[in-house]
Every structure is written in C-alpha cells, then in structure tokens.
Amino acid sequence: MDRVVVVTADPAAELRRLVDRDGFSEEEARGRMASQMPLAEKAKVADYVIDNSGSRAETERRVREVYRALLDELKATLAPAHEPAPQRPRDRESSCHARPDPGARQHFLRDRGVAQRIVELVAPTLHDLVVEIGPGRGALTEHLAPSCRRLLALEVDTGLAAR
Length: 163
Hints:
Layout: E1 5-8, H1 11-22, H2 26-35, H3 39-45, E2 48-51, H4 56-81, H5 90-94, H6 112-122, E3 129-133, H7 141-144, E4 150-154, H8 158-161
Helix pairs in contact: 1-2
C-alpha cells in the first residue's frame, strides 16, 4: 500500500515557521522555500493533503481523518486475502509473560497470515532499512527481518524490549 501524504501551509505561515522554529533569517527561509518543489506541485501527486495553515486543532482533525482513511484502506486490502492462520504453538506464547496493557492502548498482532500480508504489502528489499515502531512480541518482526537489509525495532515497553 503506497500512499503519498503531503502537508501544506500557506507561504506566509511556512515562512514564519522557518524563521521562528528553525532560526533562519527571512532571506534564508525564502531561499529554502524556493529550492524545494512548490507545495502546489507536491499536492497534485498526493493521495491525501493535510493543510497545516490553520489552528493546531484543525490540523489534528485532518490528520485523524487521513489516518482513519489509511487504516480503512489497509483493512480493505487485507480483508480479501485474510485466511485464518494456524494457531501459534502454546508454549511459545506462554513463555512470554507480556500481556497487552489496555491502558497503554497495546494490541499484539497474533495472526501470522496478517503479518505476512503486511510484509507483502510493504515489500521491503534487501537494500532497505525498515523501522518498526512498537514491535511488541515480534510477530511482524519475524516476517520483516529476512526481507530487509536492516531492521530497527523501537519498543518503549521495557518489559517487551528486554525480550
């Protein structure tokens, strides 16, 4: 599933942010903006555009909309190809004492068929560096690792990271 998301802002807001946030002079900021492809051109090839010119709340609302749309697309892509995968051996799962923490909004991927389908959709190559955020028990990691040059798995749950 390849999608392009472009975040735009009106030129005045973009200039102001470069000066305020990054410490550029106005001339440096204008030079930086001129050296990049115009946002209008980027937006033409985007699947989703997020306008970041308004308030933070407006931008967050749009980000959530795009996120939901991407999830819906992914679910639709996975649904037809989904076949129940054989159950993982009990001894492997029981050897890991980690349980999802609903308060931390954790959800562990258990279906090997879904994990394999995700890897097929991502289609990593042996030239790629892949970053997996929140690998949990490693259900997706075990499918990703053989397919890419390097895999960086970032886990904030110290109980899971210790595995």
